[in-house]
Design goal:
Blueprint (H helix, E strand, L loop, with lengths): L13 H12 L5 E6 L5 H14 L3 E6 L2 H4 L19 H14 L5 E6 L6 H12 L3 E8 L6 H7 L4 E5 L5 H12 L5 H11 L3 H14 L2 E3 L4 E3 L8 H11 L7 H10 L2 E2 H5 L4 H9 L3 E6 L2 E6 L2 H9 L3 H17 L7 H13 L4 H13 L3 H9 L8 H13 L3 H14 L3 H17 L4 H14 L3 H17 L3 H7 L10 H9 L12 H9 L4 H18 L5 H14 L2 H18 L2 H17 L3 H13 L15 H9 L3 H17 L3 H30 L4 H14 L2 H13 L3 H17 L3 H15 L8 H5 L8 H11 L4 H8 L3 H15 L4 H7 L5
Parallel strand pairs: 1-4, 1-5, 2-3, 3-4
Antiparallel strand pairs: 6-7, 8-10, 9-10
Helix pairs in contact: 1-2, 5-6, 8-9, 8-27, 10-14, 11-14, 11-15, 15-16, 16-17, 17-18, 18-19, 19-20, 19-21, 20-21, 21-22, 21-23, 22-23, 23-24, 26-27, 26-28, 27-28, 28-29, 28-30, 29-30, 30-31, 30-32, 31-32, 32-33, 33-34, 34-35, 35-36, 36-37, 37-38, 40-42, 40-43, 41-42
C-alpha cells in the first residue's frame, strides 16, 4: 500500500483555499466554517487551511468533537485550555483563558474543530467568546443535515464568519486527484467506475482505490493504472461505514432498501407497496434514497451507488430470490406496459432462478442490445436452452461477444449461425458481423475475405451482393489495403439515396454498433483534413467516454486516433497518455494489430520526451509480439518509435532510413496519409531535399490543409529559406501542428543568424519559444540543435549530435560510412565553431542534456 494509505493530496478545492486565504488576511474575520455531506473532504480541506495558517506564522491547535466528548462540558477542547485556569466562574475563567492565549509567542491562535456540530454547549460558548474578542480564529467542519444547538449555531453565524459548502468531486477533479495520489494517470474505464461507484465522495473514493490496490485489481504497467478485473472490491472499513449508515434506517424501511438494491430505479407505486408513505419519506429525509420526478412518473433509487453494493452483499440467497420474483410478479400484474419491463422481468427471473421463459429471454435480449448493455445481452442469450436457439439469436449473441472483444467465442457462435442460416438476408447479416469480427481478431484479412466471398455466392439479390462488395471494400481498407478498398467503393456515391433503407433492413438482423463508435472515422477525417486538433479531440474524447462507460473494447481505435492526433499536433505527453490507454485495452483483449501500432507510438513519444529507457522497453515488447497483417494505420506508422529513438540517440541517418522504408510500406498499400506523415519526419530529421517532391505530389491528392502544410515545411527546410520557413510555420500553426510550427520557426531563426540578421533571428526565436511552450517538453533535433549549430555544415551537425550522445568516433564512422580521421576532423571543426573542447561541453551546447 506504501504511501497511498497516507494522506492524499488536496485536489479540486482551489477556490475554497483562495477563500480561506482571504479570510486569513481579513483582520475582522473570526471563523471559517466548512460544511458538506459526510466524506466530501471537509476535514482534509480544514487541515490544509490549518497547515497554511501555521506556515503563515499563526499558532495552531486541533480538536475533534464527538458524541462521547459532548457529554462532558468542555470535553472536546479541554486539552487546549491553559493549565490552572479555574472555569467554575465562567466570566473570570473566560478572561483568564483569553489572557493566556494572547500572551503566548507568535501570532493569533487558529483552532481547527472537526465535527463542530457535536460540540457541547459550554465549549461552543467559550469558543464564540474567544472568537469575538479576537483571541482566536476558528476553522470548523459541520456535517450537512445534522442537528445542533443554539450555541453551535452561534459559531456559524455572523458576518465575521466565512462559510463554504463542499460538494462531491466531478470526474475531471477525480482524475486529477488519482493521478496526484498514484503518481500516474488512471485509464478511463477504471476512472469511470471509480467516479460512478464513489459518487464523487472523496472518502469512498479513497477506500475503493485502497481496496482495489490491496486485491491487486488496480495495477500499473509503467505508463497507466488499469483494472485487471473489471470490478472494485473496496475495503472492510468502507463496508462498515456504509453498513453503519444504512443501520440508521427505520426497520420498516429495510425491505424498500433491499428491493432497490436489486431492482432500482423503481416507480414510487412499487415502493409504497412495501412500506407506508411516512416510512419512505423518512428514508428520503435520512439521505438513504433519492426520489425524482420525470413528467408523471416518480422514480425512487438509492442515494448512493455503494449502498446497493453493500445491501446486495448482505442479502441471503433465498431472500434475494423472493424479492426478485415478487417484483417480477408485481410488474406482470400491472401489464408490463413500459418498454423496459420485459427486460427487467427476464433479468430478475434469470437472476432469481437461473432460467426464464425462452421467448421472454429472446425479447429481453433485443431490448438489452438496443440499450447497448452487452453483458446483459450475452447473459440473456446464453441462458436460452439449446433447442430454442435460432440464427437470429446466435447472430445477436455473436455480435455482442464481438463488441465485448471475445473474438474466438464470437467466431464460433457466428459460424454456427451461418451454418443454420437459410434466408438470404440472414446470411447477409451474419457475414457482415462475422467478417468484421475476423478482421478484429488478428486473423489474416484473407479469412474475412473468404467468408465474404462465400456469402456472395449464396446471395442472389444484386442489391445484397452489392452490400457484400461494399463490405469487401471496408475489409480491404481497414486491413491496410486502402487503394484496393477504395477501388471497390468508387461508385458508392451513386447509391447514397438507398443507404438508409438498406441500413434499416440489415439492422433488423444485425444491430448497429454503439453510436459513439460511429465517430471513429469522423475523428480520423478531422485530423487528416488539417482542422485544428482541438476539434478532433473533442469529438474523440466525448465518444471515448461513452464507450468506456459501456465497457466496450472497440474504444481502442478512438484511443489510437486520439494519440495520433496529439502526436500530429506536437503534444507528445498527451499522445503518450492516449496511446498508453489504447495499449492497456489492447493487452486486455489480445488485440495485436492495435498493440503493434500503439507501442510504436508510445516509443516515439517517450523518445521525443527524453525517456529513452522507456522507449527501448516499448520497442522490446513490440519485437516480441506475434506478426500480424498491418491495419490501416499500422502500415508503416508502427515504425515511428524505432525511428525517433534512433534520432534521440543522434543517429539521424539511420532514423531517416527507417522512416523512408516505412513510407514505402505505406505507399505500397495506398496509405497516402501515413506516407505523408512518415516522409514529413524524414524532412524534419535532415532529409527534406529527398522527400519534398513526393510530399508535394501527396498534397495534391489529399483533402484538407494538413498535407499542403507538410509539403510547404519540407520545401522550406530543403531551401533553408527563413522567409519560407516562417510562412510554413504560419501554415502549421493554423492547423494546430504546434511542434512543426516550433521547428520551422527555430530553423528560420538559425537561418537568419547564419545570414547575420540578428533582429530577424531574435523575432523568429521568440515565435519559436511561444510555439515550443505548447509542445509539452518535446525535444527534437531541429529544436535542440538548430540554434546551437547554426554555423555548422550538415555533416558537422550530424557528427556533432552523434558525438554528443556518447557515440565513439569509430562507431560514428561505421554508421556514416566515413573514415575515423574524417569524423575527427569534422568534430574538431564543430568544437571550434561552438567554442567547446570536450564532448561533455558539446552535449550542453547542443541541448542534448540540460
Amino acid at each position: 500500500m506504501r504511501e497511498w494509505a497516507g494522506r492524499w493530496p488536496l485536489v479540486g478545492r482551489e477556490a475554497e483555499l483562495e477563500y480561506f486565504a482571504a479570510a486569513l488576511a481579513d483582520r475582522g474575520c473570526r471563523g471559517f466554517v466548512v460544511g458538506g455531506a459526510a466524506g466530501v473532504g471537509k476535514s482534509r480541506l480544514a487541515e490544509e487551511c490549518l497547515d497554511r495558517a501555521a506556515a503563515a506564522g499563526f499558532r495552531v491547535g486541533r480538536a475533534t468533537a464527538s458524541v462521547a466528548a459532548g457529554a462532558v462540558p468542555l470535553g472536546a477542547i479541554a486539552h487546549l485550555l491553559p493549565v490552572g485556569v479555574d472555569l467554575s466562574d465562567p466570566v473570570a475563567g473566560f478572561d483568564a483563558v483569553a489572557r493566556e492565549l494572547a500572551a503566548g509567542p507568535g501570532r493569533q491562535w487558529v483552532l481547527m474543530v472537526d465535527d463542530m456540530h457535536l460540540l457541547d454547549a459550554a465549549s461552543a460558548v467559550l469558543l464564540r467568546q474567544l472568537m469575538d474578542t479576537g483571541a482566536l480564529l476558528l476553522i470548523g467542519t459541520v456535517r450537512s443535515g445534522e442537528p445542533y444547538g443554539e450555541a453551535v449555531a452561534a459559531l456559524r453565524g455572523g458576518d465575521a464568519v466565512y462559510r463554504v459548502d463542499l460538494t462531491v468531486l466531478g470526474p475531471e477533479q477525480i482524475e486529477a486527484l488519482l493521478q496526484a495520489a498514484l503518481g500516474r494517470p488512471v485509464a478511463r474505464r477504471p476512472l469511470h467506475k471509480l467516479s460512478a461507484a464513489s459518487g464523487g465522495n472523496v472518502l469512498y473514493l479513497r477506500e475503493l482505490v485502497l481496496g482495489a490496490l490491496t486485491a491487486g485489481n488496480l495495477t500499473e504497467d509503467g505508463e497507466i493504472w488499469h483494472l485487471v478485473e473489471d470490478r472494485l472490491p473496496g475495503t472492510a472499513r468502507l463496508t462498515e461505514m456504509i453498513s453503519t449508515r444504512l443501520a440508521t434506517a427505520d426497520p420498516a424501511g429495510r425491505p424498500v432498501l433491499e428491493l432497490l438494491a436489486l431492482c432500482e430505479p423503481l416507480s414510487l407505486t412499487y415502493v409504497e407497496a412495501l412500506a407506508p408513505p411516512q416510512v419512505t419519506a423518512a428514508l428520503e429525509q435520512a439521505g438513504l434514497i433519492r426520489v425524482t420526478q420525470d413528467g408523471r412518473r416518480t422514480a425512487v433509487s438509492l442515494a448512493h451507488p455503494l449502498y446497493g453494493e453493500v445491501l446486495r452483499a448482505g442479502l441471503p440467497v433465498l431472500r434475494r430470490r423472493v424479492l426478485l420474483l415478487e417484483q417480477a410478479e408485481r410488474v406482470e400484474a400491472r401489464g408490463a406496459r413500459r418498454r423496459a419491463d420485459l427486460l427487467h422481468i427476464a433479468s430478475w427471473r434469470l437472476a432469481a432462478t437461473g432460467t426464464a421463459d425462452p421467448a421472454l429471454l429472446a425479447q429481453a435480449a433485443v431490448l438489452a442490445r438496443h440499450a447497448h448493455d452487452l453483458p446483459q445481452t450475452v447473459a440473456l442469450l446464453e441462458a436460452l436452452p439449446e433447442k430454442h436457439r435460432t440464427t437470429a439469436t446466435d447472430l445477436r449473441l455473436g455480435e455482442a461477444l464481438f463488441e465485448l472483444g471475445r473474438w474466438h467465442r464470437a467466431e464460433a457462435t457466428l459460424a454456427r449461425a451461418d451454418a443454420f442460416a437459410v434466408d438470404e438476408q440472414d446470411k447477409l447479416a451474419v457475414a457482415l458481423v462475422r467478417t468484421t469480427n475476423l478482421l478484429w481478431s488478428n486473423a489474416p484479412v484473407a479469412e474475412a475475405l473468404a467468408v465474404n466471398d462465400a456469402a456472395r455466392e449464396q446471395v442472389s439479390s444484386p442489391a445484397d451482393r452489392r452490400k457484400l462488395t461494399v463490405n469487401e471494400g471496408f475489409l480491404r481498407i481497414v486491413g491496410g489495403r486502402p487503394a484496393e478498398g477504395l477501388a471497390l467503393l468508387a461508385d458508392l456515391e451513386t447509391e447514397v439515396g438507398d443507404a438508409p433503407d438498406a441500413h434499416r433492413r440489415v439492422q433488423e438482423r444485425a444491430l448497429a454498433s454503439h453510436p459513439a463508435f460511429q465517430r471513429v472515422p469522423l475523428v480520423l477525417a478531422l485530423t487528416e483534413a488539417g482542422l485544428p486538433a482541438a476539434e478532433a479531440c473533442r469529438e474523440g474524447e466525448r465518444a471515448y467516454a461513452e464507450l468506456a462507460a459501456a465497457g466496450s473494447p472497440v474504444r481502442i481505435w478512438l484511443a489510437v486516433l486520439l494519440g495520433r492526433t496529439h502526436w500530429l499536433a506536437g503534444h507528445p505527453a498527451t499522445a503518450r497518455r492516449w496511446w498508453a490507454e489504447a495499449a492497456t485495452v489492447s493487452r486486455g483483449i489480445d488485440h495485436a494489430m492495435a498493440l503493434r501500432l500503439v507501442l510504436g507510438g508510445l516509443a516515439a513519444c517517450a523518445a521525443v520526451l527524453g525517456d529513452l529507457d522507456a522507449a527501448e522497453a516499448m520497442l522490446a515488447e513490440h519485437r516480441a509480439l506475434p506478426p500480424v497483417e498491418p491495419g490501416l494505420l499500422s502500415a508503416g506508422e508502427e515504425r515511428l518509435g524505432e525511428a525517433w529513438l534512433l534520432a534521440a540517440r543522434g543517429q539521424l541517418g539511420r532514423a531517416r532510413s527507417v522512416l523512408a522504408d516505412a513510407a514505402g510500406i505505406a505507399r505500397a498499400g495506398g496509405h497516402v496519409t501515413g506516407e505523408a506523415l512518415l516522409l514529413t519526419d524524414v524532412a524534419r530529421l535532415g532529409g527534406a531535399k529527398e522527400v519534398t517532391g513526393r510530399l508535394t505530389e501527396l498534397s495534391l491528392i489529399c483533402d484538407g490543409e494538413l498535407a499542403p502544410a507538410r509539403a510547404q515545411l519540407a520545401a522550406a527546410l530543403a531551401a533553408d529559406d527563413p522567409d519560407r520557413l516562417l510562412r510554413a510555420a504560419d501554415a502549421c500553426r493554423i492547423i494546430g501542428a504546434d511542434l512543426l510550427d516550433a521547428e520551422a520557426s527555430t530553423a528560420a531563426a538559425a537561418a537568419w543568424r547564419r545570414a547575420d540578421r540578428p533582429r530577424r533571428a531574435a523575432s523568429a526565436s521568440q515565435r519559436a519559444a511561444v510555439a515550443r511552450a505548447r509542445c509539452e517538453g518535446a525535444r527534437t533535433p531541429l529544436l535542440t540543435t538548430a540554434q546551437a549549430t547554426a554555423a555548422l555544415t550538415a555533416r558537422e551537425r550530424e557528427i556533432a549530435l552523434l558525438a554528443a550522445v556518447g557515440t565513439a568516433s569509430k562507431d560514428i564512422a561505421q554508421v556514416l560510412a566515413l573514415s575515423v580521421r574524417t569524423v575527427d576532423n569534422h568534430l574538431q571543426h564543430a568544437y571550434t565553431k561552438l567554442g567547446v573542447t570536450t564532448r561533455h561541453q558539446l552535449a550542453y551546447a547542443l541541448g542534448v542534456v540540460e
